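Record type: monomer structure entry
Structure origin: computed from sequence
Chain ID: A
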Amino acid sequence: MMHVKESADESELEPGTRLGNYSLIRQLGEGGMARVYLARQIYIERLVAIKVLRLRASGQEAEELRREASLLARLPAHPHIVQIYEFGFAGPVPYLVMEYAPYGSMRSYCGGGVCLLPREACHYLLQAAAALQTVHNYGLVHQDVKPDNLLLARPNHLLLSDFGIAASLRLARLRASRTLVGTAAYMAPEQFEGRPSMASDQYALAVVLYEWLCGTPPLVGSFIELQQFHQRRIPLPAPREHVPALPPAIEPVLERALAREPRQRYPSIWAFARACERALLGKRSG
């Protein structure tokens, strides 16, 4: 049975609530679009994460969500992509059942101004880029790459998560005409204009790497402030302004991946990651 708390938000559920074959244990976190719960799959005693979306889906919206969930569930298995187990509805409220990552997010691991050493940052970057390249090869764009959506299944093993707003490029652009999605500090300039693309994910991952190396994203501010910043075409601060000891070679790599125009960035997110590996570790491309 679904037990909703005394709240207008139907995504706010009590521990012990049953969603299909899952029993909620506790809330793990929440964002603007959903709440995430730790749950137990009743018959096989498996721990899972369940994302309950903050919306009551109409018939048309429910069908679109079903199509998107089906698309995501058919993603090729990848060691750095969270596995999606099931999609369903509790009445009109949609939920997604996913692999549970017990070690939290990269935000909790190295947020709050903490800098990673170049070798460790590169280690996690390559894992995230490999996952995103697989997503792109399948014709999808994530649209919300940020440390909160990069989870740790175990120490040193990253998982790309939160496909709640990922969609085929066609659906992403249709949705962008109605509402902008993403998190402002990690959004590419074209996302503020409602034109998301695979290059937008590259931009976001470059912001993530910048933050891992420098302890802060290149831009911090409200949605409106960052939108205006991009419109004025002001150059981003160089990483070595924050951490002078960084290898100089990383600056032109990040500058290209953070270019205002998508066509000026690397041809793929994996090409960007390999360029970072060469710049940070001095490795030759293979």
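Annotation 1: The two ends are 55 Å apart (CA to CA).
Annotation 2: The domain at 106-281 is CATH 1.10.510.10 (Transferase(Phosphotransferase); domain 1).
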